[in-house]
Amino acid sequence: MKPGITKLGFVRSGALIAVLCIMMMHSTFAEIPLAERRSGYDLLSRETRAMQNDDTANPGMLWVLDGEALWRAKAGTAEKACADCHGDARETMKGIAARYPAFDPARGRPVDLEQRINICRSEQQKAPPFAYESKDLLALTVYVTRQSRGMPIEGAVDERLKPFVDAGRALFTRRLGQLNLTCAQCHDDNWGQKLAGNPLPQAHPTGYPVYRLEWQTVGSLQRRLRNCLIGMRVEPYAYGSPEYVALETFLMWRARGLPVETPAVRP
Amino acid sequence: MARALINVPAKAKRGEVIAIKTLISHEMETGFRHSTIGLPIPRNIITSFVAIYNKEEIFRAELFPAIAANPFITFYTVATESGTIAFEWTGDNGFSATETAAITVE
């Protein structure tokens, strides 16, 4: 090989490494300033926005109807309905979802809304818990979350949640999987750009459980996280694992102040 | 019983063109997919939708496997007289759902 070419190649790869280093330095500290945060709603097409805005066109409302029926249905050996303890959800569940995942003192860790519903189900109603992503669990979660629609996300105000927010942030900024990516590289550093033709959102969980057109159904935030992890070629965590709840806690802290949109529609 | 959402204006002027929106929960399983153990998942779709305005059929649609889950059908009609608009969806495995909406025409 001619020495000139080798030298040129060396210079080129040196320049490439320098560019990569700059990109990596950039990706290490780039939390989105509070004023620049946008819901994924802003990136939707006109048609998808219209679908979310109109309660008679938003398919997520079908889950709200199912959830409302489940709220009043007696279940388990205790023969109790959610409404028997909590009354009218439109009053008692207002603002609840805006502060979940919430710290559960009995367990010493945060639980998300799906887990809270299942805890109530097994401890109060004495009924078998719903499976993750089952229609009933999603319907109840959508119904409860909808009562907070338009209210700002509180975002881990409880001091006891702080270590879990930090654990979530550590996961969000850790390189994972065969593609060696972090969540932050897409959602903090490159939001608004395109990924395979689709706009990259900032990943604020404002509308979960969400009606995703690709899924043709409602799915939880954990399902969405699992989806991203598979895209990064990471072995996904099991549903309900503490890693997901920590990520959810961090994401809700990160989205603090943005309004709840549930049931949102996303492509 | 499948859940459905209907949007018909409660009041309209005689001769006015009104938009009607319908949304129904249905999985619309195509029949082309296979389960995780390789068995074909049988087709389960809505095949027909009919709207009847005071006994007169005003809209009819045939649905096919390419239509997404929870079909949303919207159409326009002329408000002729007060009464009810009845909607009926029928499909595979004896699926049938009906809804009605009242309209006042002035």
Radius of gyration of chain B: 16 Å
- Mind telling me the CATH superfamily name of the largest domain in chain A? Cytochrome c-like domain
Estimate the mean pLDDT confidence of chain A.
Answer: 90
Question: How many discrete domains of chain B?
Answer: 1
Shape of chain B: elongated
Strands of chain B, total number: 8
Helix and strand layout, with pairings?
The complex is a heterodimer of chains A (267) and B (106).
Chain A: H1 3-28, H2 46-53, H3 60-72, H4 82-86, H5 89-92, E1 102-104, E2 109-111, H6 113-123, H7 135-146, H8 162-172, H9 183-187, E3 194-195, E4 198-199, E5 210-212, E6 217-219, H10 221-231, H11 242-254, E7 265-266
Parallel strand pairs in A: 5-7
Antiparallel strand pairs in A: 1-2, 3-4, 5-6
Helix pairs in contact in A: 3-7, 6-7, 8-11
Chain B: E1 4-7, E2 11-12, E3 17-24, E4 46-53, E5 56-62, E6 72-78, E7 83-91, E8 95-105
Parallel strand pairs in B: 2-8
Antiparallel strand pairs in B: 1-3, 3-6, 4-5, 4-7, 7-8
Structure in words:
The complex is a heterodimer of chains A (267) and B (106). Chain A folds into two domains: 35-52 and 160-266, Orthogonal Bundle (Cytochrome Bc1 Complex, Chain D, domain 2); 60-146, Orthogonal Bundle (Cytochrome Bc1 Complex, Chain D, domain 2). Helix content of chain A is 45%, strand content 7%. Chain A is built from eleven helices and seven strands. In chain A, the strands form three sheets. In chain A, strands 6-5-7 form a three-stranded mixed β-sheet. Chain B contains no helices and eight strands. In chain B, the strands form two sheets. Chain B has a five-stranded mixed β-sheet, with no helix packed on it. The model of chain B has no long low-confidence stretch (mean pLDDT 95). Chain A binds chain B through residues 51, 54-57, 59, 61-62, 65-66, 213, 216-217, and chain B through 3, 5-7, 21, 23-25, 28, 68-70, 72, 74.
